[in-house]
Amino acid sequence: MISGKQPLDTIETELEAQRQAIADLERRLATSSDRLLASGKAQADAYRELARLRVNSMASGAAGASGAASELDAAAKSVSVLLRRREEAAEALEQQLKASEQRRTTVEAERTAQAEALSAAAAAVDAAEARTQARLQADPAYRTQLERAHEAERIAMHAEEKATRSEQEQEEKGRAYRRDPLFMYLWRRHYGTPEYRAAPLFRWLDGKVARHAGFHDARPDYARLLEIPGRLREHATGCRETADHAFEAVRALDQKAREADGVLALEATETSEKDKLQALDEQLQRLAEQNAGLLARRQEMAAGQDGAFRQAVDILASGLRTEALQSLHEEALSTPYPEDDVLIHRLSELQREQEQLETAGQELQTALQQRHDRLRELEELRAEFKRRAYDQPGHGFEDGMLVATVLANVIGGMLNQGALWRVLDQQRRFRPPRTDTTFGSGGFGRGSPWGGALKPPGGGSRGGGAVRGGGFRTGGKF
Fold it and tell me: What is the pTM of this model?
């Protein structure tokens, strides 16, 4: 058996690994985006140098080349302004992310400490309850009341079963009577009883019908068939009331003993610690949502999808698509000047580099989006694990190897979360170190006062199987 905290530790370790992988991919994508923008700027610089050469060498093309160079200079200045603003925004975003991460780390540490405080409070309740149970088990008056309650419960259940069988028998055996129209006609007229009223003629006719149908012999049998279940059910109801009173007496003794030994005060402390842990989990959930928004913005900037970056790219692309630059490119290809050839070759290399960077950027964006989706799924997995209180003290899982295998497959994307929840629900066990949740009034299947604030819904059992007795000869769930 493993503790409930071990799977949670595995999930949190994987969360941290995903965060590291996302940060690495974002750095690579940001580098690729910066290189892509740098490639565009380098193309603009090459065209500007080509225009300068044309101005110096050919008077006829001077006006067009000078205009192209001026347009590129203006574009470069606009891009520089945009990039400075973008760098400032990126720095502010990083500061927000850093502060958010520091806050998350702080709250995680607070939660770890709070979980330990809850464990200590639960252990105190468990120790106190174990002492109370030992004291009650040694008390002859308590044992007598408990045995009386178990005996009353046994009698009540036996009476209820007998009443139910009688009602079923009434339904089955009474069917033949109800299907006989002559018998039911006389029965409804109360023939053969003081309530029967009829004129002489009808009385004479009903008598002939009764003799023909054998009503005189059948009527007492059917009357008993209807009467007995009612009496048995009335008796069963009385037995159940007696059993309920006996049970309430045992539960009152349990509660009185728990209060006298200070268990209720300790349980109140445990509940308070549990509420504090829940508040921290809710705070962590809000921080995770806030952090997800910041990470999405950083991913957008790393991918060059933010407004400033797109505007800078559009400005450069617009500048490089002008007719003057196209003419400049065509003229440079037709001239014998080696300086032109060097720049044209450089432009070709830059265009190839741009295509490669765009392809690599798309692949990095796809990988980064997959990581973000996985991070979100793991955050949801951790939140649901905590919501189900699987990591709280006293809770664990029977087959640790099975749980670890299924969890690994869920983390690896080979199984969905539904499979994990089914396995965890099946393997979940509640094992207080000393307290018996089926002790005393906890052994009647009506919930248990034992087990503190962290006991399973409905009281539960320590082993997760059939509810066991409270250590007495007549103990156990009926």
Answer: 0.57
